[in-house]
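Example record

One chain of 347 residues, shown exactly as stored in the release files.
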Amino acid sequence: MLESLDILDDSFAFMANMDDVITSSPKPTSNQGIPSEYNVSRKDRNIHGGGVFVAVTKRYVSTTEYSLDTQSEIVWCKIEIAGTKPLHIGSFYRPTDNKAEPIQQLNISLSKITQNGTLPNVILGGDFNCPDVEWITNTIKPNPQYGYKVNRALLDTVEEHGLIQQVKEPTRLNNILDLLLTTNPDLVEQVDVCPGMSDHRIVIAVINVKAKRITKPPRKVFVYTKMNKEGFKNDALAFQKVILTSNERSTSENWSHFTNEIGGMVEKHVPQKNIRERWDVPWLSPEIKRLIRKKQRVYNAFKKYKSDVLWEHFRKIRKTVHREMTKSKNDYNCWEKILVTRQNNPA
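Predicted C-alpha cells for this chain:
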C-alpha cells in the first residue's frame, strides 16, 4: 500500500494494524494518491507544499483533534477503541535549524493530552531532525549539530510526558532523525526501517490498538483475621483426642491424616476470597513502586485541592518515575543480553 502513496517524497511513515494507519510528513497538495478508504487529518505548510498528515482507515472511528494544534508542524487525530482508552496519533516535523520553538510548541500540544493523572495512549511519529540524541541512554552527544538547547528541549519533552522512543536503526545516513514515540511501548509489536522514496528511510511499525497482557488466573486466599476461632478450637481439640488414641496408623499415615484434617478445619472456619495478582515487570523495583504510589497520592491531593503547587509537584514526580523506569528497563535488558551471550558462548 505504501507504493500507492506516490506523494511521500520526504517522509516519516508508520503503519499500524496491517496497514490500518499511515502517518507522514510529506509535501502534499491534496489527498490525491491516498486510498479512498482512509480519513485524512492534515496541516499544510503553505501553498507551495509541505506539512504533515495522518491517514486512518475508515473502519475506525477517528476525528481530527484541532484543539491540540499549536504554532508548529503538527497534526493529531484520535481513534476511539471499544473497551479501552482512545489512541492519540500525531505527526510532527521540526525544521533543520537551531530553534527550539517547534519542540516547545510540541510540548504545549502534548500537555493538553497528558494533563490527567494517568497517561493516555499516544503514538507520535515524525522527522525531528535531532541526530545527536543518544536514545538508549537519553543523553546528548558532544557538540550537537543543532545546538544543546534544541536537543535538551526534546529530551525534556519526552521525559515530561512519559514518552519512549522506539526506532533503533538509522533513518538517514547514520542518524536516527525519524522517531516513533509512545506512552505505552506495549502497544508497539514491531518496528522496521525500510528503504524510502527520498534520502530518508521509512519507519514501519505494527501497533496493537489494545496492548496484549498476560493475565494470571485468580487465586484463593484465606482471610485469617475473620476466622471462627472458637469453632476451629473445638474441632482441633476433638481431633486431638482421636489422633492421640490411635495406634494403628504409621507415622506417614498419621501425618497425612493430620494435614487433611487441619486443612478441612481451615476450609470450614476461615473465610476465603479470590484475588487477581498484578503482573509486575521484572525491572519494576520496590523504589520505583514507592515513587509510583507517591505520584498517585500527590495527584489525588491535586484533584481534591486544585493547587498549582501540587500539580507542579506531580509533574516532577511523573518525570522522575519515567526516567527511573526507563533506566531500570534498559539495565535489565542489558543484563538479559549478557546472560544470553554467556549461555550461547560459555567459553
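Notes: Confidence is low (pLDDT under 50) at residues 1-22, 25-29.
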